[in-house]
Amino acid sequence: xxxxxxxxxxxxxxxxMGPELEGIEVVPAETSEPRAAREPKTWTVLVVDDEExxxxxxxxxxxxxxxxxxxxxxxxxxxxxxEQRPDIDIVFLDAMMPKLDGLKTVARVRKGERAELPxxxxxxxxxxxxxxxxxxxxxxxxxTKPFRPRTILNIMNYLLxxxxxxxxxxxxQLL
Length: 175
Known about the structure:
Rossmann fold; 175 residues; 9 helices; alpha/beta; 13% strand
């Protein structure tokens, strides 16, 4: 049964998932080494949202999976971080933000030096018009809020090429 969760309830649910999220092993599909012999890759993830609660939840999901997180509350700050931090591997970006919204932010990313950087829009806007607008602006994937933690991690693994080949055959089943 699905139910709406407020931020505190969501965080509590996320805490209960601790064992599921901790120690997630990331395995490159092209390697033939046994899983136990490989070190998981640590990524630097930029989470951009004007809502502090969303930044907190996303940060917790990503850090529990063993990755580093940077956050920004608007597109302008995100672009500044992208210039300063070439180590950022992927961006999760809200659509509606002050100063510079998500669509304009991703359009600028696509025209700049980091044009190939994976960008995922995470938005409360759920109409086909908004989703297609995200793809037209250049996002690699569009996730609607509320989202499941596993969805965020699967998309991240898929876009960064770290999803095991057998899992990558049908991404939609993993979401």
